[in-house]
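Note to self: keep these together.
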Amino acid sequence: MSRRLAAAVVVVLGAALLGGCATTVHVEPADDANNPLCAEVSVRLQNVGNLADKDRRWTDAQATGAWGDEGAASAIILRCGVAVPAPTSALQCVTLEGVDWLVDASETPLLRLTTYGRDPAVQLYIDTGAVSSNDVISTRTLVAAITTIPADGNCPAPDELDEDAQELLELG
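Structure:
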């Protein structure tokens, strides 16, 4: 092979590799991302190709997932292995699709949902300006992935969603 052809092949392969990285979403792994239960969640996430009409995107961190449109910020980010919330959390605790969640709507339109009563905990960041959070958390394959982590507790006194959180979940 001539040097020119070899150089061209290297340039094309390098561009292809770099181009493939352009679609990778950077996500900080959670502290307990290497927990074997997070590995099970990750395996099950392979069955969640499309979530709330958003395509699965590759991430660069263990025990994470992302969904969104190419070239845009991810509409949905999942991280397994986040700190297990304390039972006295000030956030609302609700049960949706058999999973107890702490709902943090303090950064609207971003909604943060953290599983409650599961160790390790799973956290979802949902851009409710791009997708309906209800469409995300009601997806059977996502619920199946999360529920591979056994529940060892539940919301102490499940709350009704306040008006703002209810609106985000319904209209998102």
